[in-house]
Write a structure and sequence with these properties.
seven-stranded parallel sheet, Rossmann fold, five-stranded parallel sheet
């Protein structure tokens, strides 16, 4: 397989450190003028690899335009902006930077939880309006003794548990039916693994950390939100479709829960007129939990490293569709 044919396509620019890695390998790099499907489509034909951020969905139609695409390497941890089935049918190896951003996302989540409990958003807004007497309303709450419920106890959830437990000094709750028992046992000193319903009923803060797929879409909807305490908060830094946005707005308006912090939304960018934009008990950030100065470089360089590994005849890590490795075209790949 000739690595010199074709090029590495960037639908969006990546950090210079990562781009330089590709050029140092002698690989041609083509950057799309913008990430719209119409602009990217004519560039697909000769793309040998794609380093993909979140600005475009690689649909079946786009993938069909490629003549000999080897790999799609996501800078982020999810692959929900790739038609994974179509990519697999074409024999394209799809990888992600799963886990590379885990500590950064956990930090963002912890910041949101603390901001909710301490009502920092309310305090900041009121003092700017001259309402210094807000200090006497006693809105902030102690972190000590609060039970955090973590939905999805992968790497991010595990790191978050390690951050939050020393502050709360009480046992945490987690729901993850796919987590091996051996992993659960490693957290037996701080975490109780329970059903989703029990977690929702018992937690003071619920934090969501699951991928978006057919099993998790609308995982938290009206029936689930109604189980939560009226004083409880929900935090979502995973994907917008996991928490039903319409039902969340209703729960916030009707006082079913106290508030929410969201880094992800069903439609991004958030559309004008979205009720969440006008709600005082919600903290919103623009899908930025992993986008620190350090982490974006780390994610991009990891994505590029996997492309380089493949071009040099090595099996890349963190493959989302490992079944493609059974194809004859990939049987030559060496393990590191």
């Amino acid at each position: 397989m000739d690595r010199k044919k074709g090029y590495v396509l960037l639908p969006q620019p990546i950090e210079e450190e990562a781009r330089q890695m590709l050029e140092n390998e002698g690989l041609e790099v083509v950057v799309a003028p913008d990430a719209s499907p119409a602009t990217v489509a004519p560039l697909m034909k000769d793309a040998r690899a794609i380093v993909l951020r979140t600005g475009i969905f690689l649909s079946r139609d786009l993938l069909a335009l490629s003549d000999d695409l080897w790999t799609i390497s996501r800078t982020g941890g999810g692959v929900d902006n790739v038609d994974l089935k179509a990519a697999t049918e074409k024999g394209v190896i799809v990888t992600s930077s799963l886990g590379v951003n885990a500590s950064t996302v956990a930090e963002h989540t912890l910041s949101m939880i603390l901001a909710l409990l301490k009502h920092l958003f309310l305090m900041d807004r009121e003092i700017r309006k001259g309402n210094f007497k807000i200090r006497f309303k006693n809105y902030p709450r102690d972190v000590l003794g609060k039970r955090l419920g973590i939905v999805g106890f992968g790497r991010i959830g595990q790191i978050l548990a390690g951050y939050f437990h020393p502050l709360s000094q009480t046992r945490l709750l987690a729901y993850d039916p796919l987590l091996p028992e051996a992993v659960k046992a490693g957290f037996s000193d701080m975490v109780d693994f329970v059903s989703l319903d029990e977690l929702l009923r018992t937690s003071d803060v619920v934090s969501v950390h699951v991928p978006l797929n057919e099993h998790t879409r609308n995982m938290i909807a009206w029936d689930q939100l109604r189980l939560m305490k009226p004083q409880a908060y929900i935090v979502n830094v995973s994907r917008g479709g996991v928490v039903n946005e319409r039902d969340l707005v209703r729960a916030l308006r009707e006082g079913v829960i106290s508030g929410a912090a969201l880094d992800v939304f069903e439609n991004e960018p958030v559309e004008a007129g979205n009720p969440l934009l006008e709600m005082d008990n919600v903290i919103l950030t623009p899908h930025t939990a992993a986008l620190t100065e350090e982490c974006v470089v780390r994610m991009a360089t990891e994505a590029v490293r996997r492309v380089i590994d493949l071009f040099n005849g090595y099996e890349p890590d963190k493959i989302a569709n490992p079944e493609v490795l059974q194809l004859e075209k990939w049987r030559h790949l060496k393990k590191r």
